[in-house]
Amino acid sequence: YVPDTGPRVRVNQVGYLPDGPKRATLVTDATTALPWQLQNSAGVVVRSGTTTPRGTDAASGQNVHTIDFTGYAAQAQHLTLAADGETSHPFDISGTLYDQLRSDSLQFFYIQRSGIAIDGGLVGAAYARPAGHLGVAPNQGDTDVPCQPGVCDYRLDARGGWYDAGDHGKYVVNGGIATAQLLSAYERTKTAPTAGFGAALGDGTLRVPERGNNVPDILDEARWELEWLLRMQVPAGKPLAGMAHHKLHDQNWTGLPLAPQADPQPRELHPPSTAATLNLAAAAAQGARLWAPYDAAFADRALAAARTAYAAAKAHPAVYASANDGNGGGAYSDNDVTDEFYWAAAELYLTTGTPAYRTDLEASPHHTGDVFSATGFSWGSTAALGRLDLATVPSGLPAAERTRIRASVAAAADAYLATAAGQAYGLPMFGGPGAYFWGANSNIINNAVVLATAFDLTGQARYRTGAVEAMDYVLGRNALNQSYVTGWGENASENQHSRIFANQLDPALPHPPAGSIAGGANAGLDDPFAKQLLDGCEPMFCYVDDINSYATNEVAVNWNSALAWIASFLADRSAP
Ligand code: 9MR
Fold it and tell me: Of 217, 232, 297, 346, which one has the greatest count of Cβ atoms within 10 A?
């Protein structure tokens, strides 16, 4: 299988910010510098230069050169780059490039909602559907869910929340990080000195049913999931009271396509876990401080749930979800919860100022440890979420401690810049073994989130440059010439694995909505379709825009939350 990768000049197919870096990658056999030309929409050369040979790129196996046209800053549409007899896909130079991506990426969450009819008047008739999993036949419903046999003697009303991804499962660990990233995208508009554009995330900015309620829509969207997280808590008086059930999903895997409201499978609560409990504690504690000005009663309820969850996790610190519990839904197993403890303690401390949480933070191995791994933070590795908030959210931390924490963010960002400098495609992910894995697009973006936060903290332009350049990879400057975001770029993913957006299988069904990001290149080839098609692929080539490839091409809430955070950063006029 040889994919059609189009022109050998690889650009961000959406475009470049006038005050941002502007680099492209040329795939060529040439080993010496070649001339390049930047052309306007009339084909007139507006800038020219020579390439920089980079040798063989470890992630793609390609011989590549880089092209740097950062010096050209004029806003223009439909530019192209030519080199070595090839002409790139067209792109723009525009200061407003990412404004619509901010709302598109956030809009994804409403369309993923469970337990509510999706209003075509808000998001277009193609995405309208009846409410799913409210117990209306053939659904067996999330309104009165039993546990798996032997796990508990009660049922929960666990309606609502977001479907995790292309399946109909709902998972507390992944819901927690996705909620936290939406909350942080909002919180950043209050804490970042260069942001100050909170209005862009205010009421009326998203097409959600709650618009017009005088609450920022992004908070309304986050609350939809928070309410569900709270419903997953074990009731008082029951064994493991205050813990959170790890997940809720179908008894058996279903096929594609399948509308949520047509899912006939029994739904089951799986056992509580310490990881899920701490995710709930962290997200609910953060939600409490952000919701306080808008709905004090909800904020109190969320904070009480967070405190109870944290205490329950401390009482049951090693209840792990089984790696083998993967029938009908993903396992999301994680046997190291030290990072979740750190994250939850950080959020509870930031919200309450209670010294006991700070004492726990200081006792954590992550207090002084390096929480910013080369592979990036993710649902199973959450300490960075706590560290970033300790660095940015006002608190009673002593000045020296705040300085230490902020320096750790900048140091991590410098390490990601060093990594990116070694990549001919410019992304903050190393090229060697272990780099391209399931969902890695979100890890790459999360490294950009660290870079962006370092920019917010220091004002140093190089950090913003690194964050911007990470998006070039996501939007087409890569070995496959692939934009991984639906509706964004000339050659963009549109057949992501989803039971809902299954146009590839049934033309009557929609593609994913604009602003849906695919998991991306995954050298693990963890699904049979990718395995048979792509066996032996170089890491950056291990992706296919086919609905069958869930391990390279699914949608997921924790991946779109990363995209939403960085798109919101990039949309802010935070030029150095
Ligand atoms: O995103 C998850 C990835 O990190 C794991 O390696 C993978 C296998 O356990 O599972 C991914 O999450 C999937 C979940 O298990 C079920 N819903 C779809 C998720 C995205 O593919």
Answer: 346
